[in-house]
Design brief:
Layout (H helix, E strand, L loop, with lengths): L11 E10 L2 E11 L4 E5 L6 H8 L8 E9 L2 E2 L5 H7 L4 E4 L3 H4 L6 H13 L3 H14 L5 H4 L9 H12 L6 E5 L7 H18 L2 E6 L2 H7 L2 E6 L2 E7 H6 L4 H15 L1
Parallel strand pairs: 3-8, 3-9, 6-7, 7-8
Antiparallel strand pairs: 1-2, 1-4, 4-5, 9-10
Helix pairs in contact: 4-5, 4-7, 5-7, 7-8
Length: 267
């Protein structure tokens, strides 16, 4: 068990987290910590368990999957001991998540302004006018031009890159403390990927966010993260400062991921 004296602890401490699905241990005894305002990359191939870790942090593991052991201490509270109602108040308000595919994450029958405003009303109790004004401000924060007009548009009226900006605006709607970004640039071309990474850097500084960035791409880890956790088959195979891991990888799996990145960069 983790030390209960958390006075000087990091903002987030994950200890011995395990997640199972029938016949599969998707995450096995994963531990890490995150300081306030820091950025951690969780890197690995598809199916390595990194997105499962992200969902576990939000207590969004759907049956028949289940968290079988571990602790997730956020601001001194073990999230795994909170009720469903208590977790609803945490999600969005204190911890937000950006998903890989913004088109499927946004509701096609509501305008983007309505969707962002709804999150504000849910967590901050604002009236419709105030919540709408807050939604427009968040769209402005992610550099969507003519934000007041675009807030009335529907998701299909935005490009892929713009939809991802909308998702970031929604994640920031209630000024959370921790942002989890699950492969937010995978479906975008290289130029737009760089724009989204730069935007995330800007909003992290502006909103004083802690960020967990889930990715298979070590190039993104190098560009955005201070520390990295390398995951393979649900287990941590390497962790440390990004510069040290990239220059002196200790795991053969990490070296394989880096070699793949070098091949891509040469092409």
């Amino acid at each position: 068990m983790l030390d209960n004296n958390l006075k000087n602890s990091p903002q987030l401490i994950v200890g011995n987290l395990s997640v199972v699905y029938p016949g599969v241990k998707a995450v096995a005894n994963v531990s890490f910590s995150l300081a306030k305002g820091a950025t951690l990359g969780i890197a690995g191939e598809s199916g390595s368990g990194k997105s499962t870790i992200a969902l576990a942090l939000m207590k969004l593991i759907a049956p028949p999957g289940r968290i079988t052991s571990g602790e997730i201490i956020f601001d001194g509270k073990n999230l795994l001991k909170l009720s469903d109602a208590e977790m609803v108040r945490v999600r969005g308000a204190k911890i937000s998540m950006i998903f890989q595919d913004p088109f499927t994450s946004l509701n096609p029958v509501f305008t983007v302004g309505e969707q962002i405003a709804e999150a504000v009303r849910l967590h901050q109790g604002l009236g419709r006018a105030a919540a709408w004004a807050a939604a427009v401000k968040r769209l402005e924060a992610v550099h969507i031009k003519e934000a007041e007009r675009r807030a009335h548009d529907y998701p299909h009226q935005f490009s892929g890159g713009m939809r991802q900006r909308v998702m970031i605006a929604m994640a920031l709607a209630c000024r959370p403390q921790l942002l989890i970004a699950d492969e937010p640039t995978t479906a975008l071309d290289t130029t737009i990927q760089l724009e989204i990474i730069q935007l995330l850097k800007e909003v992290q500084a502006e909103f004083n966010l802690s960020v967990i960035f889930i990715t298979h791409n070590f190039g993104i880890v190098k560009a955005f993260c201070r520390d990295v956790l390398v995951i393979n088959k649900g287990s941590v195979v390497e962790t440390g400062p990004v510069a040290a891991v990239l220059s002196r990888p200790q795991s053969s799996y990490t070296r394989k991921l880096l070699d793949a990145l070098r091949i891509i960069n040469r092409e």
